[in-house]
Specification:
Elements: E1 9-10, E2 30-37, E3 40-47, H1 54-57, E4 89-92, H2 105-109, E5 115-118, H3 136-149, E6 154-160, H4 162-174, E7 182-189, H5 197-207, H6 209-216, H7 223-231, H8 244-249, H9 257-266, H10 268-278, E8 287-292, H11 303-307, E9 313-318, H12 325-328, H13 330-342, E10 358-360
Parallel strand pairs: 4-5, 4-6, 6-7, 7-8, 8-9, 9-10
Antiparallel strand pairs: 1-2, 2-3, 3-5
Helix pairs in contact: 3-4, 5-6, 5-9
Length: 362
């Protein structure tokens, strides 16, 4: 889908001090773009419309090369599941994440659809604009405004962790009678939800005056603490690839990154109440849940009560994996996601998720 060339749209390769190829998360075949909004600039990544097929791009393993030469329309994959009319996919990162989280997924998804990976305002390399509403609903509305600016009215939406909660709120906004937008399908990767006790306790504490003070004097200033917290997101820490921690730390070069995180956790309890009240509205949305069995951030046990609100849903559990399956087992994650998006050999999302419909990706 061509992008709208609205006033202030900066959908061009970034002109910054660093060459775009050196930006964390950049891959050939993926464009770095900027959009002016809310008094600042928002960064996002977009797959190029002439992205090569996986057969041309190598085996898709993390770190494998992706072709740098341009591809004409004649060389675009001819698989029947690949079509310019395929529904675009928007990717939403989690707390303290950014578009870097999707560096393994975007090249694999490129042949199937146009993919947009956002750096939410205040996160990643997007500008830190003071006074923005970073509640789940406020962030969801900015996601929809982003899509509207690009002329996208129907899209699939993937959110992980806090981004998963934002995705649910965005889908609910689209179901309002006055909305002209549609979230066709949801993919929720360990989404923050009201039924995981860990998040209900920890986030409000961090948002409290005492928690904020401790946060500022530990994670915000001590690299080993950040490294320890990041490693805890994995089921198997030996799967942390070289450069991963450095990539997640890179946005620290842009001041006030942690202010964005703190503004989110300050409204956490109220946001979860609003999310729980919103869930009954989402019954019509086909949804894929993806979880690591060793997730200690958003407990996998919360999937079952959450899925009661999604009668057209399935759940994939990645055994031995933590909170970041797209980091820890990217090949398995990408394969499951592509199966869902293309509906190839994937269980039809036409019945309530139950224990018999839980899939293990071994």
């Amino acid at each position: 889908m061509p992008e709208a060339q609205g006033v202030g749209e900066l959908a061009v390769m970034a002109q910054r001090d660093l060459p775009v190829q050196l930006y964390p998360g950049y891959r050939p075949g993926v464009e770095e773009c900027w959009m002016e909004r809310d008094g600042g600039r928002m960064r996002y990544l977009r797959t190029e419309s002439n992205a090569p097929s996986l057969a041309d791009a190598g085996n898709g393993e993390p770190g494998s090369s992706f072709p740098t030469n341009s591809f004409s329309s004649d060389s675009f994959p001819t698989n029947s599941s690949i079509s310019p009319e395929k529904t675009p996919l928007i990717l939403l990162h989690g707390l303290l994440g950014y578009s870097f989280s999707w560096r393994h997924a975007m090249p694999s998804l490129a042949p199937y659809t146009t993919v947009y990976a956002l750096d939410m305002m205040g996160a990643g390399f997007s500008d830190r604009v003071s006074g923005l509403d970073h509640s789940m609903r406020g962030t969801a509305r900015r996601v929809l405004q982003f899509a509207e600016r690009l002329g996208i009215t129907s899209f699939d939406l993937l959110g992980t962790s806090h981004g998963g909660a934002v995705a649910m709120m965005a889908a609910a906004e689209c179901l309002q009678p006055q909305s002209r937008m549609q979230v066709r399908q949801l993919i929720l990767v360990a989404p923050v939800n009201p039924y995981s006790a860990h998040g209900r306790r920890l986030a409000p504490f961090v948002g409290s005056p005492l928690g904020t003070m401790l946060f500022r004097h530990t994670v915000a200033h001590v690299r080993p603490v950040f490294a320890y917290a990041h490693a805890r997101m994995y089921g198997d820490r030996s799967r942390i690839l070289p450069g991963t921690l450095e990539g997640y730390l890179a946005p620290l070069a842009k001041p006030r990154l942690f202010e964005h995180a703190l503004s989110i956790v300050r409204t956490w309890t109220e946001d979860l109440r609003e999310l729980e009240a919103t869930l009954p509205k989402l019954a019509s949305v086909p949804t894929l849940f993806m979880w690591g069995s060793k997730d200690t951030a958003v407990f996998p046990s919360s999937a079952e009560p959450l899925a009661k609100f999604f009668p057209h849903s399935n759940l994939i559990i990645f055994p031995g994996v933590g909170h970041l399956p797209y980091e820890e087992t990217p090949q398995e994650f990408n394969a499951a996601l592509i199966d869902f998006l293309t509906d190839n050999n994937f269980p039809a999302c036409n019945s309530r998720m139950n224990r018999d419909s839980v899939l293990n990706c071994d």
